[in-house]
C-alpha cells in the first residue's frame, strides 16, 4: 500500500470517529472497506477493530475477513486468526476458497520456523489439515493450485515428506487446469523441503523428472539443487548445475554464490570459499550478511579464527550490519578457544555495529540506550524487550548483549572503532588481504569416485 493510501485511511478513520461522537453511525460497507484497507497495510489491530464495529455483517463482507486472515498469515499471528474464525462462525459467514487457502497457510504447521517437527507435531498437523479439508469439502469447495501449494509447503516445513509427496501426486492427478509454470512451482516447493531434510536422492530424482518432462526451471530451483550438492558433497555436480543454469539463461545471484559456498565449505575448502566471495564481488554482486554468516559458521565449527576475523572485517568494510548469528558464531569461536576477554570485546563491538554501522549514534539515543543498559532495576531486561516493536528485534538483542557485557565488568564504549580488537582486525586485513589457514585443517581432495564424474548427471 502506498504512503498516500495509508495516510488516506488514517484520515477516514479519524472522520468516522468524529461521526460516531456526533451519534452518526457509519455504513457497514464503509467499516468493511476500512478494515480491509488496514489489513492490506498490516495494521491488524485497527483492521480487527473496524471489523468488530460492523453492525450488520453480510456475505459480501467475506473479503474483509479474508484480508485480515491474510494479514495474520503474513505476520504469523495464528491466535488472532482463531478469533477471526470464531467471529465468522458466530455470524454464519460462509468461507470461500480463498479462506481455505489461507487456513492451510496459517495452521498447516506448528513448529516452523522455531523448531523442527516431531511425532507429536506431525499428529497435530495431520488433524488440523484433515479438519480444514473436511470442512472445505462439506462446503462444496475443491482444492486449487494455491491451496495445494500451501499444503505441500506446510508438510515440507514440518518434515512430513511422505505426506508432502502424496499431496504432490494428488495435485498432479486432480489439478488439470494448472499450467507448466504452476506445476514447476509445486515441484520447486517440494524440492526445497527434500533438500532441507537431506533427502538427496529423492531431490535429484525429482529434478531429473522435471527436466525429462521439460518443465520450466527458474533461478530458485537451480539454487536449491546447487545447495543439495553439499550433502553429497560434490563440487563437480554443483558446477554442472551452474553450467545448466547459465545455458538456460539464468545469471548467478547472491543466493547462488551462497549455495556454492555451502558446497565448498562442506569440504572445509576455505580458500575456495574466499575465491567465491571475490568472484561474487567481481560479478557486481554484494554478498549479504547471510552469505558471510555461511562462512563464519564453518570457520567457527573448524576453529579457523583467522578466517573468521577476516570475514568479520569484510562485513565491516562492506558496511553491512551484523545480525545475532554473526555475534553468536564469533563469541562462541573465541570462547571455545578460552579467549574470554576477546569474546566479550568482540561482542561489544559487534553489538554496537548491529545498532548502527555508521560511526555516530545520536546523543539523545545514547542517553536512552545507556539508561536501559546500565539500569539496576530488576525488570530492566523486560523494559528492553518491551521498548521495541516487532521488526526491531536486532536492536533489542544488541542492547541485551551490551547489558550482559556491562554486568561482566566491561566498559561500554560508543566508539567501537577505538577497540583494540577492531583495530587489530583492520590492521591484519590491510596487511595480508587473505587470512592464514592452518595446514592441519586443509581440506581433502574432492575425488569421490574413480570416474571423476559428477555424482549425478542431468538429462538434456
UniProtKB/TrEMBL annotation:
Residues 1-18 form the signal peptide. Pfam families: PPR_3. Gene3D superfamilies: Tetratricopeptide repeat domain. It comes from the Eukaryota. InterPro entries: PPR_rpt (IPR002885), TPR-like_helical_dom_sf (IPR011990). This is Pentatricopeptide repeat-containing protein. The keyword Methyltransferase does not apply. Keywords: Repeat, Signal, Transit peptide. The keyword Isomerase does not apply. PPR repeats lie at residues 61-95, 218-252.
Amino acid at each position: 500500500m502506498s504512503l498516500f493510501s495509508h495516510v488516506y485511511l488514517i484520515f477516514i478513520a479519524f472522520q468516522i470517529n468524529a461521526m460516531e461522537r456526533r451519534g452518526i453511525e457509519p455504513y457497514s460497507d464503509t467499516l468493511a472497506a476500512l478494515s480491509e484497507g488496514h489489513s492490506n497495510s498490516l495494521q491488524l489491530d485497527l483492521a480487527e477493530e473496524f471489523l468488530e464495529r460492523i453492525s450488520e455483517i453480510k456475505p459480501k463482507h467475506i473479503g474483509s475477513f479474508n484480508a485480515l486472515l491474510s494479514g495474520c498469515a503474513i505476520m504469523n499471528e495464528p491466535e488472532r486468526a482463531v478469533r477471526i474464525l470464531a467471529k465468522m462462525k458466530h455470524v454464519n459467514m460462509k468461507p470461500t476458497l480463498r479462506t481455505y487457502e489461507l487456513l492451510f497457510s496459517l495452521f498447516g504447521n506448528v513448529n516452523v520456523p522455531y523448531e523442527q517437527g516431531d511425532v507429536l507435531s506431525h499428529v497435530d498437523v495431520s488433524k488440523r489439515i484433515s479438519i480444514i479439508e473436511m470442512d472445505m469439502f462439506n462446503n462444496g469447495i475443491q482444492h486449487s493450485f494455491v491451496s495445494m501449494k500451501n499444503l505441500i509447503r506446510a508438510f515440507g516445513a514440518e518434515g512430513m515428506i511422505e505426506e508432502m509427496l502424496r499431496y504432490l501426486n494428488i495435485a498432479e492427478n486432480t489439478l488439470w487446469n494448472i499450467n507448466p509454470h504452476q506445476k514447476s512451482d509445486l515441484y520447486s516447493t517440494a524440492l526445497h523441503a527434500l533438500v532441507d531434510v537431506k533427502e538427496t536422492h529423492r531431490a535429484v530424482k525429482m529434478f531429473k523428472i522435471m527436466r525429462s518432462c521439460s518443465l520450466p526451471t527458474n533461478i530458485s530451483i537451480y539454487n536449491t539443487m546447487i545447495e543439495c550438492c553439499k550433502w553429497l558433497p560434490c563440487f563437480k555436480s554443483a558446477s554442472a548445475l551452474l553450467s545448466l543454469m547459465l545455458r538456460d539463461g539464468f545469471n548467478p545471484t547472491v543466493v547462488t554464490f551462497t549455495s556454492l559456498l555451502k558446497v565448498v565449505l562442506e569440504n572445509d575448502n576455505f580458500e575456495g570459499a574466499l575465491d567465491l566471495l571475490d568472484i561474487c564481488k567481481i560479478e557486481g554482486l554484494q554478498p549479504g550478511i547471510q552469505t558471510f554468516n555461511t562462512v563464519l559458521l564453518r570457520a567457527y565449527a573448524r576453529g579457523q579464527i583467522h578466517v573468521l576475523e577476516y570475514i568479520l572485517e569484510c562485513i565491516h568494510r562492506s558496511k553491512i550490519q551484523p545480525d545475532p548469528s554473526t555475534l553468536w558464531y564469533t563469541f562462541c569461536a573465541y570462547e571455545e578457544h578460552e579467549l574470554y576477554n576477546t569474546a566479550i570485546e568482540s561482542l561489544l563491538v559487534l553489538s554496537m555495529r548491529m545498532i548502527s554501522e555508521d560511526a555516530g549514534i545520536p546523543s539523545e539515543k545514547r542517553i536512552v540506550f545507556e539508561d536501559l543498559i546500565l539500569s539496576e532495576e530488576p525488570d530492566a531486561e523486560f523494559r528492553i524487550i518491551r521498548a521495541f516493536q516487532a521488526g526491531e528485534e536486532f536492536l533489542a538483542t544488541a542492547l541485551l548483549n551490551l547489558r550482559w557485557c556491562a554486568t561482566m565488568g566491561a566498559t561500554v564504549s560508543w566508539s567501537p572503532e577505538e577497540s583494540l580488537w577492531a583495530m587489530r582486525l583492520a590492521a591484519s586485513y590491510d596487511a595480508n588481504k587473505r587470512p592464514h589457514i592452518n595446514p592441519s585443517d586443509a581440506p581433502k581432495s574432492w575425488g569421490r569416485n574413480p570416474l571423476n564424474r559428477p555424482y549425478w548427471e542431468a538429462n538434456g
